[in-house]
Structures are given as C-alpha cells and as structure tokens.
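Researcher: We're teaching a course module on how sequence relates to structure. For the next exercise, students receive a sequence and then see the predicted structure as tokens, so they can try to spot secondary structure elements on their own. Here is the exercise chain.
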Amino acid sequence: MLPIDKVIFLLFFPACVGLLTQVIWGIELTNQLVALGTFIFCIEQARMAVKDLRQIEDAKAYVQDVRLNTFYQVTVITISVELLGFYTSIISLGWGSILILLSQIWFNLLANVKIEYINQTDNYNFYSTPAVTLSAPVSLLDAAPSLKVRDWKVSERLPVLIADILGLILISFWMLQIGSLFISWILFAMVIAYGIAKLVLLFSR
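Model: And here is the predicted structure for the students to work with:
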C-alpha cells in the first residue's frame, strides 16, 4: 500500500496541473485570477489532507475514541468532494469553486474533534475541552507521540465558516458576471490572506 503522502500527491497533482494551464493560457484576467487562487488552494488542501490523515492514523493507533471514526469519515468525504471540485474547476471554474467551498463548509460544520500533538511543534489540524489524552510509555517514547483529542465546537471555527460562506456568495456573483473583475481580485486576495494566516500560525509555534 502506498504511503498517504504519495496517494494524495497522485490524487491532487493532475488537478493542480489542469488549473495551472488555465492560469497560463486563460483568455480573461478574471478567469486567470480565480484559477490562480484555486491552484494555490489546491496545493494547500493537498498538504492539509496529508497532515489530517496522518493525524487521524496516529490518533487511532494510540487513542481509543469512537469520535475518531466519525472524524475520519468527515475528513475523507471532505477530501473527496474538494477533489471533485478541483477537477471540475478545470472545466468550469465557477461550479468547481462552489463544490470546493461546500466541502469546506461541510467539514467545518461536522468535524467535532481536534487532535493535537502534545509538546510538539506541529498541530496538524488547522481547523475545545480535553477529552482523551495519551502519553507514550517511556519505552516507546520515540515511537509513540503524546496525543490529545479535544472537542471542537462550531463556534471556534465560526470565522472560517463565515469566510467560506462569503466565498460561496462571491463566486455565485462571479458566475453571474456581476462585478467579475472586482470579485476575482477579492477571491484571490482571500486565498492569499488564508495562506499568510497559515504561515503566521506555522512560524508562531
């Protein structure tokens, strides 16, 4: 069986290439901007897919919590729908973007736990009262990480949900060709702001 990172690469890479062709050979600037934003987001979501799946795999190995099964199902469905969205974007940027945003809304509404690595610099889930904590035995300290599975309330990710809904509204106006260029810049700026926020979180750890 292929490692998670290779599986995700094989799933996302063709979509990234297809989106990049739209950026390079797009006819209109509005389409190129939306395609570029989607391309950047595709790369980021591929990275997050690897980290989320590895996180769940580690948690299931060391923590007995039935909520992890639901979280895994939600994560896999999210990845599947967003993949469908990225591939659809190669043909229709508007409808593809709608699918991608719906996948994000789905995840942020239904994901009910957050898994954290204790005393480690990388918390994989970007997106809370302690529920289960496991510290590795001394003999397995190098192999087994210390994990914490925490409740993750919808209210904690409300800003992300609002941004997703706003993006859904904006892409709908874009498809109707209402302020297309202006909306294209806004959508592109939102993706860049998202990337900057992730970098800030990464370097602040």
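Model: If you want an answer key for the exercise: Residues 120-143 have pLDDT under 50 and may be disordered. The chain has six helices and three strands.
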